[in-house]
Specification:
The structure holds two protein chains of two kinds.
Chain A (H helix, E strand, L loop, with lengths): L6 H15 L10 H5 L1 H6 L3 E7 L23 E3 L6 E3 L3 H4 L5 E7 L6 H10 L12 H9 L11 E4 L16 E3 L14 H20 L4 H17 L14 H6 L9 H15 L3 E6 L8 H26 L6 E7 L2 E2 L11 E2 L3 E7 L7 E2 L16 H11 L7 E3 L5 E3 L13
Parallel strand pairs in A: 1-7, 1-8, 4-12, 5-6, 5-7
Antiparallel strand pairs in A: 2-3, 4-11, 8-11, 9-10, 13-14
Chain B lengths: L11 H12 L4 H4 L6 H16 L10 H13 L5 H9 L5 H9 L5 H17 L10 H13 L4 H10 L2 E2 L14 H4 L3 H16 L15 H11 L5 E7 L5 E8 L14 E4 L5 E4 L17 E2 L5 E2 L3 H11 L2 H15 L19 H13 L4 H9 L33 E2 L2 H11 L8 H12 L3 E3 L7 E3 L5 H9 L1 H6 L7 H7 L4 H13 L5 H13 L4 H14 L1 H4 E2 L1
Antiparallel strand pairs in B: 1-3, 2-3, 4-5, 6-7, 8-11, 9-10
Helix pairs in contact in B: 3-15, 4-6, 7-8, 9-13, 14-15, 14-16, 22-24, 23-24
The chains are: A alpha/beta, B mainly alpha.
């Protein structure tokens, strides 16, 4: 069983490492006023949860149906708790939560390759060989972590997938990747805490020497991650990862029975627990949407029921606990799928006209923004991009769109790549 | 420490003997900075010219210890043992670097060389995914180990992978095993789009996957190129072979006559779809525009004696061999392996849109590599004996602005830090702790796979994309802090490294030196000695425990895990 080292030992180590870390730019600039308001902020901290649909989910079969069109597929649409907003018949539970969410049906992007689309939708930038851009998780954690000074677990958690990295913000803003069982590997120190602390002091001596030799940022990044690891190892907040400790009635809502339910369901519940604990950003991964073949049975029998149950439970749970007003929920993948149905009964990659879903935080809810043509192949209203969604999410969290990062090369980089706020998403 | 027997290293005396023989080699070889090797001189001239142009003062040379550690890591995938390091440091020959490289590339280290490059190329060729039923990692590795043990020329290496036929696993009763088939066996879905993309990417350094989608709206001009490349793979098929049960016994790669998607196998075309739904025809055409016969028949002889047909994959391999892109792509990949950055970023995206940092050096090295019959070991020798490879990683005022992390093109005026790969860390821990490595190669590789699995993240796409959390993450630090591998490495059991160091007699200072040399290829500085002594005090009465604490700290340090 893991016994945390005495807090004093930890502080001792931290103070030793501080010398090393001080050579790098301070991770977060605390201001006195923020510290003074820390207790208050903790109650009202903001967070974001991205539900990432790896592979590219077919949004015209879920959020923007075209019944009767040659491209429309077999699914019917049903009305929802949001006036005038209809979604797929295989999403009956979400249909009851749509008053909390809004659909952007006029996404039009250009990246239809998995890796490029993944990068673009996560960062607001197309891949560039000369600079690595920070992803949603890194940006939001970087901007919001100062409001939760007592947070000891990483501010950017990715459940069941790897998300996209911190880019030029550095490894200390990298995703903490966990599986949906909440098991964190290698957490158990297995030795006396006092001795661990002595080892850490020795380690800090070596770290400092190497950093002082000015060989490049990789050496400092290592120390910063060490520091975060020590914080995490000694934290009671790690309990937030233990989803199975929830009461049975909560587990039931997410469809998590004694056998554990789906990984995505556990991930959604973990996201709620992490948000409750103060984590500013959580991404939950649901793969398997790359349906080049037999898309309709796959969606109707497997993917949509899995998504519907867990996503609806998460939204309802956040709302019931009063967390939704401070938590943005974003559903998206790297792109969508072709309106034309291919010879294998599947749909291929398509980025020209598709949907994302957002809700919670400062978003206007229960609306469907934008419109696609009757066959789903064109956006017929104002088209929106990844950076527009990102700008809107940041606005919903109260993060200033005037924020500018300095990339490592000294070049200023506007947050969210200067995306424009999707005005229909705000009252 | 030298009284211990190491299975890998020749007895110390023999080692010294080898060094003495080498030292007697013509002194001329060491009298310039290029060891008398014209290709090394060429690299040095080209890179130095870049420094002058950019007004950069290169860093000082790395220390012998740093260089020795670096070259072991990069050539054979692990840090040097205490013995190997000591022998190199004690050597005063002017050719000692060239001699060490010759040994690492020679018979003494052939197994470790093959193991390390097998690790590198397994990831390049089939990724990290261990779950794909269409691919056999052991089969792939077996073929790669043989290829690197024999140092087969790179053009043949490529050809065998691209044209491979046979069964992908080496199981009882299989007669036509050919591990090379694993490169393509998992990439044949949907008419081989992945085979097309990966072959172009790996062997030509060209990214074509973005233009594959018949619905890709923005690369219309190039869309035909993707499908014309793809047409080369249409005779190839990956067949599941079943045992009595429903279990797959193996995947067999075969070439079969391709009827085409029209009606005439003599003109075996494929169709692809434009964004507007119109269909277009493609026949095999190489990226440089070279066409091959359009027949879908495999080569044969008609009743009247006339030859007909064509093997499309073999034709493709010949075209790749002749292409200037092949040596450029591999030179760029190898340069990035040793110097931390390639001439382009990413390394497998050559083309006018992505100009290289050192175009003349890239082209010149590619030409020389072709002249050298595509001998990978020679290419390695040139790179690791070059001046830029031998520079210190300590940045000075004169070269601080050379920082590729800032998005600048690399100038290689100091050695760029990089973290070890997971495989390198694993093997280095085994070496540093003198763990028994007498297991058969494949048994050891499987054990390593199991350990590596904890870092793999799949992306949930049909293309099997994946990533690793072994990238400086918290997960990695936790593994180093508390994981089983490090627990074993720091165990104090009888006969283990720590036990033997503790039992070796002599002063504590010498024992700490031994640990530092084994892990960091240097001795501790005064502050570190003081910190270690403090641990000795804390662990009073338990000297092995104190050594254990020092060892744990050394292995967990940035200096250990970063190739510098």
């Amino acid at each position: 069983m893991f016994t945390p080292p005495a807090d004093m030992s930890r502080r001792h180590f931290m103070s030793h490492l501080a010398g090393a870390a001080a050579l790098a730019a301070p991770a977060t600039a605390f201001t006195n006023s923020i510290l003074a308001n820390a207790a208050d902020m903790k109650k009202r901290h903001k967070s974001a949860i991205v539900l990432w649909m790896g592979g590219g989910a077919s949004t015209m079969d879920i959020w923007d149906l075209k019944p009767g069109a040659a491209t429309g597929g077999p699914f019917k649409q049903i009305s929802t708790s949001a006036d005038g907003v209809a979604i797929c018949e295989h999403m009956p539970l979400m249909a009851r939560q749509m008053h909390h969410m809004s659909i952007v049906r006029s996404m039009s992007t250009r990246e239809a390759d998995h890796m490029r689309g993944r990068y673009y939708m996560h960062t607001g930038y197309v891949p560039n060989p000369n600079v690595e851009h920070p992803s949603y998780g890194a940006v939001i954690a970087h901007e919001l972590a100062e409001h939760v000074p007592d947070l000891e677990i990483p501010p950017f958690v990715s459940v069941g997938g790897g998300s996209v990295g911190p880019g030029f913000l550095g490894m200390s803003w990298a995703p903490f990747v966990v599986d949906s069982n909440g098991n964190i590997r290698n957490l158990d120190v297995g030795i006396d805490p006092a001795r661990m602390s002595q080892r850490l002091e020795m380690l800090a001596t070596i770290e400092r020497k190497f950093i002082s030799e000015k060989r490049g940022g990789v050496a400092e990044d290592h120390s910063k991650v060490l520091e975060k690891t020590v914080r995490l190892m000694t934290s009671k907040q790690m309990e937030a990862f233990k989803v199975m400790k929830e009461p049975k009635e909560v587990l039931d809502k997410y469809g998590i029975g004694e056998r554990g339910g789906s990984g995505f369901a556990r991930g959604c519940l973990m996201a709620r627990r992490l948000v409750e604990a103060g984590v500013p950003f959580v991404e939950v991964d649901l793969g398997g949407w790359d349906n080049h073949e037999n898309i309709f049975p796959t969606l109707a029998d497997r993917k949509l029921p899995e998504l519907d149950r867990a996503m609806s439970a998460l939204v309802a749970d956040l709302a019931d606990r009063g967390l939704l007003d401070d938590t943005a929920v974003i559903w998206m993948g790297e792109f969508s799928r072709t309106p034309n149905i291919n010879g294998n009964g599947g749909r291929d990659h398509w980025a020209r006209s598709w949907s994302v879903v957002v809700g919670g935080a400062g978003f206007k809810r229960g609306v469907a923004v934008g419109e696609t043509s009757s066959d789903g192949k064109e956006v017929v209203s104002e088209p929106y991009s990844s950076q527009d969604v990102m700008a809107s999410v940041l606005k919903s969290l109260g993060i200033s769109l005037e924020t500018t990062f300095t990339a490592k090369n000294g070049r200023p980089m506007k947050i969210a790549n200067s995306g424009k706020v999707i005005k229909e998403l705000f009252a | 420490m030298h009284q211990h027997q190491f299975f890998r290293v020749k007895p110390f005396a023999a080692l010294v003997g080898a060094v003495l023989v080498a030292a007697a080699a013509p002194a001329r070889a060491g009298s310039d900075e290029s060891f008398g090797i014209p290709q090394v001189r060429f690299i040095n001239e080209q890179v130095s010219a870049g420094w002058a142009d950019a007004d950069l003062e290169p860093a000082a040379a790395a220390t012998d210890g740093e260089w020795c550690r670096r070259v072991h890591l990069d050539v054979i995938g692990r840090v040097p043992s205490g013995e190997e390091l000591a022998a190199f440091l004690a050597d005063s020959s002017p050719t000692k670097k060239a001699d060490l490289v010759a040994r690492l590339l020679g018979d003494d280290f052939v197994d470790e060389y093959a193991r390390s490059w097998t690790d590198v190329w397994t990831t390049v060729l089939i990724g990290r995914d261990v779950e794909n039923e269409m691919v056999s990692r052991p089969g792939m590795r077996q073929w790669l180990r043989r290829a690197f043990s024999k140092n087969i020329p790179y053009d043949r290496f490529m050809e065998e992978l691209v044209t491979a036929t046979g069964a992908n696993t080496n199981k009882d009763g299989i007669e036509n095993f050919n591990g090379a088939t694993n490169f393509l066996s998992g990439k044949m879905e949907e008419g081989g789009v992945q085979a097309t993309a990966k072959t172009a990417q790996i062997f030509l350094g060209v990214q074509v996957q973005c233009t594959q989608c018949h619905n890709h709206p923005f690369n219309k001009g190039k869309q035909n190129q993707f499908w014309e490349m793809n047409a080369f793979f249409r005779q190839a098929r990956a067949l599941r072979r079943y045992e009595q049960t429903m279990d797959i016994q193996s995947i067999e790669m075969v070439d079969e006559d391709f009827a085409g998607e029209g009606s005439d196998p003599q003109q075996a075309e494929i169709f692809y779809e434009l964004r507007n739904g119109l269909k277009k025809v493609a026949f095999p055409v190489f990226v440089d525009g070279t066409e091959i016969p359009q027949s879908g028949y495999l080569p044969g002889t008609a009743a009247d004696g006339a030859a007909f047909g064509v093997n499309r994959r073999r034709e493709l391999a010949q075209l790749i061999k002749a292409s200037p892109l092949m040596p450029k792509a591999i030179v760029n990949r190898m340069w990035a392996h040793f110097l931390g950055y390639g001439f382009t970023k990413p390394i497998d995206d050559l083309g006018e849109h992505n100009p290289p940092s050192h175009p003349e050096l890239l082209d010149g090295l590619a030409d020389r590599f072709r002249e050298q019959s595509f001998d990978l070991k020679e290419l390695i020798r040139w790179i690791v004996l070059s001046k830029p490879y031998g520079l210190s990683s300590r940045v000075t005022k004169g070269n601080a602005k050379d920082d590729p992390t800032l998005g600048e093109k690399p100038k290689f005026s100091h050695f760029y830090l990089r973290q070890m790969r997971a495989e390198e860390l694993y093997e280095s821990l085994l070496t540093a702790t003198e763990a028994d490595r007498s297991r058969a190669a494949e048994v050891a590789a499987k054990k390593k796979d199991e350990w590596m699995r904890q870092f793999i993240i799949a992306f949930g796409t049909d293309e099997g994309d994946d990533a690793t959390t072994f990238n400086g993450s918290i997960a990695q630090v936790l593994m180093m802090f508390n994981g089983d591998l490090v627990k074993v490495a720091t165990s104090t059991g009888k006969g283990g490294l720590l036990d033997r160091v503790a039992e070796s007699g002599g002063k504590n200072a010498a024992k700490i030196d031994t640990l530092y040399l084994a892990a960091l290829a240097r001795k501790p500085v005064a502050k570190e000695v003081a910190a270690a002594n403090k641990l000795m005090q804390d662990r009073k009465g338990d000297p092995v425990g104190a050594l254990q604490d020092v060892w744990w700290a050394v292995l967990n340090s940035n200096e250990f895990i970063i190739n510098h």
